[in-house]
Structure formats: C-alpha cells, structure tokens
C-alpha cells in the first residue's frame, strides 16, 4: 500500500492547496478545466457512495453469513484497508474538485457547508484508514489467537464467543476493547456515509431531468 499512501498524501495536499488558493495551484478556470473538475467530482463521489453502500450493507452481510468467523474477520481486515484507501482517495478528489469549482472567498454559504461535509467525509475516511482500522486489525488478531486457544472461532454465523467469555475474564476484556474500537470505526463510517448522502442531496437539487 506504499504507492497508494503516497498518492493519497499528494492528492490531500493538492486539495488543501486548491481550497485556499485555487488559481495559484491550478491556474485559471477555463471551460475545459471546469468540465474536468465536475466530472472528477461526480465520478469520485459516486465511487465512494457505491463502495460504502456495498461494503456496509451487502458484501459484509453475505460474507458474515457464509464464512467461518475467523476467516470472515481476516478477510474483512484486508477489505477494509483497500476500502478506506479507495474512499479516502475519492473524498480527497471530491474536495479538490469542489473547492476548485467553488473557491472559498466567493462561495455561497450553502456551498461552504457542502465543502465542509466533503471535508468531514475525508477526515472520517482518513481516520479509519490511518488509525482506527490498523488498531482494529491488531486487536482482532490478538482476540482470534485467544479464541483459538479456547476452541472458538471456526463456527459460521452465530458466535460462541459470548458463552465462552463468561468463563474467561481475559477474553471478556478483549471483547470490550474490540467492541470499543469497532464502535469508533462504525461511527466514523456512518459520519462519512451521511456526509456524502447530504452532499448527494445537494447535487440532486441541481439536476434538471
């Protein structure tokens, strides 16, 4: 993921530059530049929204239903790293394009709010990518090792973890730690998804079908 992290960093700095000095960074807004920015914004937003919809409500549910729990957890850990990288890149591109189209100094109040929602989505995705997901995977691996020692984790669907944790204080403590970090990850995901939904509603109001 080294190249992706470098690319994301470059796009994030570009987004910051465009936010504060769009003309200095990208030059004047020609007709072709505006059209390209609009296309980049729409495609990036649609990709981030579609990825969030699939991972949160469809793909994860299917994997949980049919995979052994430890296998499901390990696969989710790999998926989430790629997922949050994709969403972070898309959110950074959306922020860059929207800031280019609506410079802060001349933007309307509603446009500033929309840029704020996009920045919130980017911040939540970056938090999940760089901080929360690595912590979640680390704790998950420790818990899986503990569960294997206790003969738990190979079941599909319903977990025997809670039952075994009643007799294992160490596993119960690990469950609390995992639950806490998982709640943080879910909260960041919901905030990102919600921010993109609000911005999608704004874009829909601009369409003339």
Radius of gyration: 20 Å
Helix content class: over 70%
What's the main sheet like? Answer: none
Unreliable residue runs: none
> Domains counted in the coordinates: how many?
1
Work out the number of β strands.
0
Straight-line N-to-C gap = 41 Å
Structural class: mainly alpha
Count of helical stretches: 7
Net shape: elongated
- β content, as a range? under 5%
Mean pLDDT: 86
Order of helices and strands: HHHHHHH
Question: Would you write up a description of this structure?
Answer:
This protein is mainly alpha-helical and 209 residues long. The protein has one domain (28-205). Helix content is 85%, strand content 0%. It has 7 helices and no strands. Helix 4 (69-101) packs antiparallel against helix 5 (109-149). The two termini are 41 Å apart. 31% of the residues are buried. This is TMEM205-like domain-containing protein. It is found in: Membrane. Residues 43-144 form the TMEM205-like domain. Its main location: membrane. One of its GO terms (cellular component) is membrane.
Which features characterize this protein?
single chain, 209 residues, mainly alpha, 0% strand, TMEM205-like, transmembrane, membrane, TMEM205-like domain-containing protein, transmembrane helix
Fold blueprint:
Blueprint: H1 2-20, H2 22-26, H3 31-66, H4 69-101, H5 109-149, H6 161-165, H7 169-206
In short:
With 209 residues, this protein is an all-alpha fold. It has helices spanning 2-20, 22-26, 31-66, 69-101, 109-149, 161-165, 169-206. The chain is elongated and about 65 Å long.
């Amino acid at each position: 993921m080294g190249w992706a992290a470098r690319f994301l960093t470059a796009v994030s700095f570009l987004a910051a530059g465009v936010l504060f000095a769009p003309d200095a960074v990208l030059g004047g807004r020609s007709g072709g530049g505006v059209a390209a920015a609009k296309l980049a914004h729409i495609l990036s937003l649609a990709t981030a929204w579609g990825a969030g919809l699939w991972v949160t409500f469809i793909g994860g549910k299917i994997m949980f239903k049919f995979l052994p729990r430890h296998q499901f957890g390990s696969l989710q850990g790999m998926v989430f790293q790629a997922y949050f990288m994709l969403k972070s890149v898309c959110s950074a591109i959306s922020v860059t394009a929207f800031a280019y189209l609506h410079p802060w100094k001349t933007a309307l109040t509603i446009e500033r709010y929309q840029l704020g929602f996009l920045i919130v989505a980017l911040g939540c995705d970056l938090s999940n990518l760089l901080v929360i997901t690595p912590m979640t995977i680390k704790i998950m691996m420790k818990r899986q090792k503990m569960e294997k020692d206790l003969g738990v984790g190979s079941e599909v669907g319903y977990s025997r973890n809670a039952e075994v944790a009643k007799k294992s204080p160490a596993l119960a403590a690990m469950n609390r730690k995992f639950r806490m970090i998982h709640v943080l990850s879910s909260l960041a995901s919901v905030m990102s998804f919600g921010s993109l939904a609000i911005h999608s509603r704004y874009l829909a109001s601009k369409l003339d079908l």
